[in-house]
From TrEMBL:
InterPro entries on file: Nitroreductase, Nitroreductase-like, Nitroreductase/BluB
Name of this protein: Coenzyme F420:L-glutamate ligase
Keyword terms, alphabetized: Ligase
Classification via Pfam families: Nitroreductase
Record bears the keyword Ligase: yes
SUPFAM superfamilies membership: FMN-dependent nitroreductase-like
Length: 211
């Protein structure tokens, strides 16, 4: 079974300075848009940034927001861990490309039940747990990551920096009614050719077959 393209994807956090042709970037985004989406809403929008100064500025925005939010954590251990995560949340500054993935609102049955108020809100909310709107974004992201890996490029699925979503969107000047920053990934040629994935849980632990 030829599934090697799946196993070529790794989380890459260090990149060479080699640039990626614009047409290649467009092809990767096109691959992302061929992901399935609930009700075929395709509730995604991709913003690509290649300017190194902008990438450095966005990293500083994340660092500033991280420092600000840490002051709201009372537990010293949690505060220290959160502050320590900022290095992982800014690895994109070393990549030639940053892809921001925005999501649009997606109405679920839970939203409709809550709006009509005939069912207790707590009960209605359980029907929104699947959150198909964000699953659409996740599917598109995985398409993008796998397509990039198949061409020899590295990526790293990131949601951590989205705590600075408002500030990032304001800085880049992206406004689209109802859309919010849901995820991002750096994109570039891996600086290290010997990359391996973290160990996976045994299949027996995560698989149930009911026949």
């Amino acid at each position: 079974m030829e599934l090697e393209f799946i196993y070529q994807r790794h989380s890459v956090r260090q990149f060479t300075a080699e640039q990626i042709p614009e047409e290649t970037i467009k092809e990767l985004i096109r691959a992302a848009t061929h992901a399935p989406s609930g009700k075929n809403q395709q509730n995604w929008h991709f913003v690509v940034i290649t300017d190194k100064i902008k990438l450095a500025d966005i990293a500083r925005i994340v660092e500033k927001k991280n420092a600000e939010l840490s002051t709201y954590l009372k537990d010293e251990g949690k505060r220290k861990a959160f502050r320590g995560s900022v290095g992982y949340h800014t690895v994109f500054k070393g990549a030639p490309v940053l892809v921001l993935v925005y999501a649009a609102p997606y109405e679920t049955i839970a939203d409709m039940l809550i709006a009509d108020s005939l069912m207790p809100q707590g009960e209605a909310m359980q029907y929104g747990k699947a959150n198909p709107g964000i699953q659409n974004i996740a599917a598109a992201m995985e398409n993008l990551l796998l397509a990039a890996a198949s061409l020899g490029y590295g990526t790293c699925w990131m949601t951590g920096p989205t705590y600075a979503a408002k500030e990032i969107s304001k800085y880049i000047g992206f406004v689209k009614e109802g859309y919010y920053l849901a995820a991002m990934t750096p994109l570039g040629v891996p600086a290290n050719a010997n990359i391996s994935s973290t160990p996976r849980k045994p299949l027996e632990e995560v698989l149930t077959i009911i026949s």
